[in-house]
Design brief:
Shape: elongated
Number of strands: 22
Number of domains: 3
Distance between the termini: 38 Å
Strand order of the largest sheet: 1-2-6-5-4-3
Structural class: alpha+beta
Largest sheet: 6 strands, mixed
Helix content: 10-25%
Length: about 400
C-alpha cells in the first residue's frame, strides 16, 4: 500500500497490514472481496489526513531518523497503536517513508524507541471536526436528481432488480420516493446522518452520509451524501445532495471518521453482511428466498415485473383474500387469465419452476424451441432464462435476469 499526501509518501507492506489487523481490536475489515480491504483503505485515508494536519512526529536517535504517526486504532488494552517509519532511501530526505512496525508506546523494540524519542509528546490522532456534525433541523436539502440519475450502479443488487434501475423513468420515480423516505427518517432520527470523509472515493472534505431505502424501509440500498453549501457562498446554505455511495463506500467513509461503536446504526448493521457476501462462493450463499427474476412483456405498454421465489401471477377479478402478487392489467389483453394463474418457485440458481394453478391453460415455450401446455392444476414445468410464458393466449412474457 502506498499513500501520498502533501509531497510525502508512505509505503506499508501487506505483511504489516496483517500485523496491524492482529494487533488492533477486532473489526470486520473485509471490503471489495479482500478480507483486509477496509483496513488498508482506512489506513491510507488516515495517513493522508495526518500529513494534511501536520501531525507526523519526526525524530532522530543513534539509529537514524524515523517518523511516527497515530493510526487511530487501539490494541486489546486500549493503548494507541502507532505507525513507525524510516526513510526508504529512494526519495528526497524525510518525504518517502517505509513502514517498519505498528506498535503501542513502550512495547516491542520500535515502541520503546518511540517512547524514548517522544516522551510525553506522543503523535496526535487525525481529527475531522471540532463539534459532532449533526443535521440541522429545518435546513433545506437541495437534491440534484439529474446527477443522481446516472448513479444507479451504487444501489444494491436487490434494489436494482426490484426497481429495474436500467429504466431511467422507473429509477427516477423510485429515487424521488426514496429521497422522501430519507427526509422523513432524518426528521425522526437525525442521528442516522453519519459523518464521512474519503477523498479516495470522491468526497471533498467532511460530509454527512444518510441511508437511502428504495423498496424496503428496513433495508439500506445506498447512501446519499449531504454536502454543505456554506463554502459556495450561499446565503441560505442548504445541504446539497448530488452524489450517492454504495453501502461499502459509505461504510469506509464513516469508519475513517470514527469507531463503529453504539450509534453507528445502519452502517454497522448493513456492513455485517458484506464480508460473507463477497468472500463466499455463490453456491454457498444462494437461497431460494434470495432469488430474483424479471418477467418482460412483449407488449411494451406493460411494465416488467420482478419475480421472487413463491410469487403468484394472475389478474384481479374480485376483491378477495386470495390475490396474486403479480397482478396483470386486464386492459392490455389479459382478460382470459385466472385470478391466480400460477406460481414461480426458484429451484436452484438460475433455474425456476412454474406451477400451474389456474382454470385456464399456460403455454411454456422454451429457449430450445420445445413447447409445453399446462392445463391441470398442480402441473409443473422447469424454466430457464429466455423461456417464454403465455397465460391463456394473452401477450407473452420472457423470463429474464
Amino acid at each position: 500500500m502506498e499513500t501520498q499526501s502533501h509531497g510525502s509518501s508512505v509505503h506499508v507492506s501487506r505483511r504489516l497490514i496483517e500485523r496491524l489487523a492482529s494487533l488492533a481490536l477486532p473489526e470486520a475489515w473485509a471490503y471489495g472481496g479482500d478480507e483486509l480491504g477496509l483496513l488498508e483503505r482506512y489506513l491510507s485515508c488516515t495517513i493522508a489526513r495526518v500529513f494534511e494536519q501536520g501531525k507526523v512526529s519526526v525524530a532522530s536517535d543513534g539509529k537514524g531518523t524515523f517518523a511516527a504517526l497515530a493510526t487511530g486504532l487501539v490494541d486489546g488494552s486500549f493503548e494507541d497503536v502507532y505507525c513507525v517509519c524510516e526513510p526508504d532511501g529512494h526519495g528526497a530526505a524525510q518525504t518517502c517513508w517505509e513502514t517498519k512496525a505498528f506498535c503501542a508506546m513502550g512495547r516491542t523494540r520500535y515502541g520503546k524507541r518511540l517512547a524514548r524519542a517522544c516522551g510525553e509528546d506522543a503523535p496526535l490522532r487525525a481529527t475531522y471536526f471540532e463539534d459532532e456534525p449533526m443535521v440541522e433541523a429545518g435546513r433545506r436539502i437541495e437534491v440534484d436528481y439529474s446527477a443522481l440519475a446516472a448513479q444507479s450502479n451504487k444501489l444494491t443488487h436487490e434494489a436494482r432488480m426490484e426497481i429495474d434501475a436500467a429504466d431511467e423513468a422507473l429509477f427516477g420515480e423510485a429515487l424521488h420516493v426514496a429521497v422522501e423516505v430519507m427526509q422523513a427518517r432524518l426528521r425522526y432520527v437525525p442521528q442516522c446522518a453519519l459523518p464521512g470523509w474519503g477523498p479516495a472515493i470522491g468526497l471533498d472534505g467532511l460530509v454527512l452520509c444518510v441511508p437511502l431505502s428504495f423498496s424496503d424501509p428496513a433495508r439500506v440500498d445506498a447512501a446519499l451524501v449531504l454536502e454543505s453549501a456554506y463554502n459556495e457562498g450561499r446565503l441560505d446554505a442548504p445541504y446539497c445532495a448530488r452524489k450517492m455511495l454504495s453501502v461499502e463506500e459509505a461504510w469506509l467513509a464513516t469508519r475513517v471518521v470514527r469507531v463503529p461503536d453504539g450509534g453507528m446504526g445502519w452502517g454497522v448493521a448493513k456492513h455485517a453482511a458484506i464480508p460473507a457476501e463477497v468472500a463466499m462462493p455463490a453456491e454457498q450463499t444462494w437461497k431460494p428466498e434470495d432469488a430474483r427474476a424479471r418477467l418482460t412483456c412483449k407488449n411494451a405498454a406493460v411494465p416488467p415485473f420482478v419475480v421472487r421465489s413463491g410469487d403468484t401471477v394472475g389478474i384481479l377479478r374480485r376483491r378477495t383474500a386470495e390475490r396474486a402478487r403479480i397482478v396483470l392489467p386486464s386492459l392490455h389483453g389479459f382478460e382470459g387469465v385466472s385470478q391466480i394463474q400460477g406460481r414461480f418457485e426458484a429451484r436452484r440458481e438460475d433455474v425456476w419452476e412454474y406451477v400451474h394453478e389456474g382454470s385456464n391453460w399456460t403455454l411454456i415455450r422454451h429457449a430450445d424451441g420445445t413447447d409445453r401446455v399446462l392445463r391441470e392444476r398442480g402441473a409443473r414445468e422447469e424454466l430457464g432464462y429466455g423461456d417464454i410464458l403465455v397465460f391463456s393466449g394473452s401477450p407473452s412474457f420472457v423470463l429474464g435476469r
